[in-house]
Amino acid sequence: MATHLIAYTAKTAAGTEQGVARVHSSRPRPSWKECREQIDNFFTGKYLGVEPQYTLTYTTADGPTLRVISGTRTVESLGSALARIADRGDAWDIEVTDEAGRDVTFDFACFRD
């Protein structure tokens, strides 16, 4: 199942609301029915694509770990916790790669000094 990004407009009691939502679907593109089910008051939207996936690898005393992560917010959240662990000397060899396998570790603020 992939996470898709949808720029949407919703009709609310106060008027209209716009934003970007994450819609989960096993289809190559979510249906408008899936958008209506997952976005409150969904009226219309524009498909922005699949949320990017990253691979986070690091090593601790327990050995190497590999995690596939969806979205930049998740990388920043997990990365901040991992950076604190690394500052204590309990994690090392931290690397984030994009879907093409490129090292993008320092594209994330949590890994920059």
In short:
The protein is α+β, with helices and mostly antiparallel strands.
Structural commentary:
With 113 residues, the chain is an alpha+beta fold. It is 20% helix and 47% strand. The strands form 2 sheets. A 3-stranded antiparallel β-sheet has the order 2-1-3, with helices on one face. A 3-stranded antiparallel β-sheet has the order 5-4-6, covered by helices on one side. A hairpin with a 2-residue loop joins strand 4 and strand 5 (63-70). It is elongated and about 50 Å long.
Main features:
113 residues; alpha+beta; three-stranded antiparallel β-sheet; 2 helices; 6 strands
Number of DSSP strand runs: 6
Task: Kindly report the spatial arrangement of strands forming the biggest sheet.
Answer: 2-1-3
Alpha-carbon Rg, integer: 18 Å
Structural shape:
elongated
**Uncertain regions spanning at least 5 consecutive residues:** none
What is the average of the pLDDT values? Answer: 94
How many helices? The count is: 2
| Secondary structural class | alpha+beta
The first-to-last residue Cα distance is: 35 Å
Helix content percent band: 10-25%
In N-to-C order, the SSE pattern is EEHEEEHE
